[in-house]
Amino acid sequence: MPFTRAQRPLYEVKANLFKGLAHPFRIRILELLSTAPERSVADLQAQTGLEASHLSQHLAVLRRHRLVESERRGSHVFYRLGDPAVGRLLAVARDLLVEVLAADGDLLRDVATLPALAAPETPGADRS
Q: Which residues does the UniProt record annotate as the domain HTH arsR-type (predicted)?
């Protein structure tokens, strides 16, 4: 059943939330923030190895999607998760990742049970 006209904006907000999560460095930033009440920009930069401008862009995306909050204190800016649920979401995502990797590991191990393939013939090769 398609969603209603009233539901569409809700699904768009939800999709945008996932867009905010859709970058490896943003996930890493959120993971770092989930392990401490807050972190300074300098700390995030040191932990991620990102240039200041790139870190700033990622933090702006996270702020826009309300995944993080910031607070300026003097010349320093500190970030924290926008909601504790973000930390729980990251934990569930990590559990899912472990399950996916385990399943892939099983598939990779099962590849060894496939019958061998004949090597393709090289066109123009001498068949004598």
A: 6-101
The rounded distance, in Å, linking the Cα atoms of 8 and 4 is: 6
Contact 66, 21 (CB under 8 A): no
Instruction: State the residue range of the domain holding 42.
Output: 10-112
- Helix, strand, coil shares of the chain, percent, nearest 5, are 60, 10, 30
Q: Does 121 reside within a domain? A: no
Mean pLDDT of each 10-residue bin along the chain, 128 residues long: 84 92 96 95 97 97 96 97 94 87 78 68 53
Phi-psi sector, 74: left (phi>0), alpha (psi -120 to 50), beta: left
Total number of domains constituting the chain: 1
Residue 119 pLDDT: 56
Return d(Cα 38, Cα 78) in angstroms, integer: 6
Q: Does the residue 100 lie in any domain?
A: yes
Rounded Cα distance, 68 and 120, in Å: 54
- Domain with residue 97: its CATH number is 1.10.10.10
